Structure formats: C-alpha cells, structure tokens
Amino acid sequence: MVWFFGEKNKTKPLTPENAMRVKSVDEEYNFIRQFTCECGQIGGLKRTRQALLTYDGRPMDELDTECNHCGAKYNFYFDISDVPLPNFGDGCKTMGESYAKYAEFNKVFDIKPKKDASKDDF
C-alpha cells in the first residue's frame, strides 16, 4: 500500500512521481514514526526493505514497511535531492548535485537493490 499525503485517500499517493522532498534521513524516519496505520496504530512500523534509486533524474530513498500490530504493508518514497553530503572534495553539497554531476554512473541505481532490514523498527 502506498501512503497518501494529507487525509487518507483524499490526496495523491506518495509515489516516485510525487515523493516527499526531505532535507535529512531523520526527517524521513520521523515522518514514518508519526504515521498512523489503517488499524489505528501510531508508529510501530518496521522497515522490511530500503533502496536508493533514481527517478526522472532525482535521487530517491524507498522504504518498505510493515505494521508490527496488523501486518499492513506501506511503501514510502522520499526525494533526497536536498540531503546534504559530507565534503568528498568534488564540490557537491547535496545528493541532488552529486546525482547530477555523476548522472551516467548513477544509472546503475535505477535498478532497485534489495536490503534485508527486517530487524529495523521505527
């Protein structure tokens, strides 16, 4: 299930096309911690998979989660273009600048790598 912005089912789903733009990984995790499952449970999601990918030239973080209470599954997409990077000496200050500079190399991220993160709870 893909999560919806605003009141449930009244706005667009959180897909790669309209991913939530964040400025830090903490912002992603805080958003998920405050998420209310369809069963009424607030928070309590565990991460089942996390992937870095690109969509339309933008770096994305995809988080697949499952409710610890009822087992409902949710997918969250975050646009990480504005997430700051450490100084690697290449002049890139954000993920977006890095992806633009290394666009040819980053095509490999269009394939979603799988990571078992089943032990990670939010």
List descriptors:
122 residues, alpha+beta
Description:
Helix content is 16%, strand content 30%. The chain is an alpha+beta fold and 122 residues long. The chain has one domain (16-104). It has a five-stranded mixed sheet with strand order 1-4-3-2-5. A hairpin with a 2-residue loop joins strand 2 (45-55) and strand 3 (58-67). The longest helix has 9 residues, at 25-33. It is elongated.
Number of beta strands? 5
Helix content: 10-25%
Q: Which strands sit side by side, in order, in the main sheet?
A: 1-4-3-2-5
In the predicted model, the low-confidence regions spanning at least 5 consecutive residues are 1-12, 111-118
Shape: elongated
Order of helix and strand elements from N to C terminus: EHEEEHHE
Structural class: alpha+beta
Residue fraction in strands: 25-35%
Q: Tell me the major beta sheet.
A: 5 strands, mixed
Instruction: Please state the average pLDDT score.
Output: 76
Count the domains: 1
Radius of gyration: 15 Å
| Spatial separation of the terminal alpha carbons | 18 Å
Question: What's the arrangement of secondary structure elements?
Answer:
Blueprint: E1 20-21, H1 25-33, E2 45-55, E3 58-67, E4 73-79, H2 95-101, H3 103-106, E5 116-121
Parallel strand pairs: 1-4
Antiparallel strand pairs: 2-3, 2-5, 3-4
Structure in a nutshell:
The protein has one domain.
